[in-house]
Amino acid sequence: MPRTVIAGNWKMHKTAAETRAFVEAFAPLMADVPADTEIVIAPPFTALAAAHDALRAYPRVRLGAQNVHWEPQGAYTGEISIAMLQEHGVSHAIVGHSERRAYCNELDSTVNLKVRALLAHGMTPIVAVGETLEERDAGETDTRVVSQTRCALDGLTDDEIARVILAYEPIWAIGTGKNCDPAEAGRVMGAIRACVPALADVPLLYGGSMKAENVATYMSHHHINGGLVGGASLDPAVFATLVRNATTR
Ligand code: PGA
Known about the structure:
By secondary structure, the chain is α/β, with parallel strands linked by helices. The protein has a single domain (4-246), classed as Alpha-Beta Barrel (TIM Barrel), CATH 3.20.20.70. 38% of the residues lie in helices and 16% in strands. It has eleven helices and eight strands. An eight-stranded parallel barrel has the order 1-2-3-4-5-6-7-8, surrounded by five helices. Strand 7 (204-206), helix 10 and strand 8 (226-229) form a beta-alpha-beta unit. Helix 1 (16-26) runs parallel beside helix 2. It is globular, with a radius of gyration of 17 Å. It starts with a strand and ends with a helix. The mean pLDDT is 97. The structure holds 2-phosphoglycolic acid.
């Protein structure tokens, strides 16, 4: 049975000071969440040091980055290496988010390089896949997400795949308030799980307008093990309620 994972993707929100205030309000509320639930926040790079410092007293909440470069160092202006993230206690990194695929030229091939590099350094990739509205309307949803999943995991051993987290995020549902019907999300996630045998016990997260009010319905589907949450992860009380609703069964 895959573990439960709830990850907050803050995108380009919160300064270091705002991050510290969030952690101080949010982390104490996580103390009674079941120990087998992984709770992750992914602030912007500039707030990781502040988050790491504020989380010292709260090991229950893990730290994620929103992107990473696969090379250890070099002439890559504006990029951030794995060692730079690990220096700040980062254990997870979101890879292949649709916004990075759309605006920052993230490709299936670079997603794969990032996943390999993260696993080689003992980090947990959160690989995001998802279809556009046009692809859904054309009946290409399953083909698209299966292809993205296979490319991201290409060349990995079964043991390596077992250390990945996958997030299914239909692009048309992200930030729109139009969340994907949970039964349909679960169906697509079943196709994702089935396309690579080693995904059997990997946490599959749903993302796209997940809220405190709808998270329980997603969690009741057997292929959905958690959420990658954008807008609803920015307020500490709101995100704490979402985590609680996800883990109360
Ligand atoms: P949303 O974003 O929850 O605001 O829809 C999810 C995501 O982009 O990861």
